[in-house]
Amino acid sequence: MNELINGLLKLQSIEFDGQVVPDKEKCVAELRAKIPAPILGHYDRLVARGKKGTAIVRNEVCTACHMHVPRGVVLTLIRGDDVQLCENCGRYLCLPDEAALPKVAEPVKKTRTPRGRNALLHPV
């Protein structure tokens, strides 16, 4: 399923972002040939309305409509089992590349300081 979504993302980047590609028509035709007809039809309906066909999910939020995406949908995207649509805007959802995600530092574990009567028994 990741290949399918990656194909949709490449197609969208060529059509919307004006990505410079040699033999643009040939590349678009090859990408369209790899995508199943029902998915391509839904994508084309969105494009005909002037909307992008795919959206990235960040922090369980669709970046196109800024609505919450259910955790089950996000888990399905992580597993790569199925193609998922946003329930609100109807775009195909995908997760950002691992390389594009910022590295999150490990949280610092805080030690509790005794308070009240225990503070007198256990001085720091």
Fold and architecture overview:
This protein is mainly α and 124 residues long. The protein has a single domain (2-97), classed as Orthogonal Bundle (Helix Hairpins), CATH 1.10.287.1490. 42% of the residues lie in helices and 8% in strands. The chain contains five helices and three strands; from the N terminus they run αααββαβα. Strand 1 (54-58) and strand 2 (61-62) form a beta hairpin. Helix 1 (2-16) runs antiparallel to helix 2. It is elongated. It starts with a helix and ends with a helix. The mean pLDDT is 83.
Distance between the termini: 56 Å
Helix content: 40-55%
Instruction: Compute the number of helices.
Output: 5
How are helices and strands ordered from N to C?
HHHEEHEH
Oligomer: single chain
The chain-level structural class is mainly alpha
pLDDT average, as an integer? 83
Radius of gyration: 22 Å
Proper CATH architecture = Orthogonal Bundle
Number of strands: 3
Give a quick summary of the entry.
The chain has 124 residues and is mainly alpha-helical.
What attributes characterize this protein structure?
single chain; 124 residues; mainly alpha; Helix Hairpins; 3-stranded mixed sheet; 5 helices; 3 strands
Strands, helices and their partners?
Elements: H1 2-16, H2 24-34, H3 37-48, E1 54-58, E2 61-62, H4 71-79, E3 92-94, H5 117-121
Parallel strand pairs: 1-3
Antiparallel strand pairs: 1-2
Helix pairs in contact: 1-2
